[in-house]
Amino acid sequence: MTDVRIEHNFDCDENTFWEKIFFAEPFNRQMYLEHLKFKRWEVMDFRETETSIHRTVSVTPAVGDLPGAIKSLVGDNLGYTEEGTFDKKMRRFRVQVVPTVLADKLSVRGEIWLQSQSAERCKRIFDAQVSVKMFGVGGIIEKRIIADLQLSYNAGAAFTSEYLKGLKSASGD
Q: Model-level pTM?
């Protein structure tokens, strides 16, 4: 198992991040489909209670060049379902990724939360654990998943920062 922490700062408060970014379907569609060029990003389930928000998303990322060992195992149908629950009291989103291939051998779990930096700034923290149980190639696949997570989160953070500037301009701030 490999752990990774990915952090990004945003010029917004925590409520803006959760409401206008993280759980806002228009933002997510624009980021994943247009900016990150994912083939698919679709909310399959969204339920909110007094204490939590549960969201399930079906995703097909754009897959670049894969090492031969990985390509032979996953083929061209690489996608996943992201099952997550936001605890409103703790203000943390716990997520489990269920891949469309090798689901019994691959596990990606994580938790996203924010640290307030000021009234108008917060830091998003994503702690993820990646585990691939495959003799000989497990470590290679774990490293590739981590690298792809970091690239995707970095690109998403850049898009989010620009999107937030647009929100501020639209509101006259």
A: 0.90
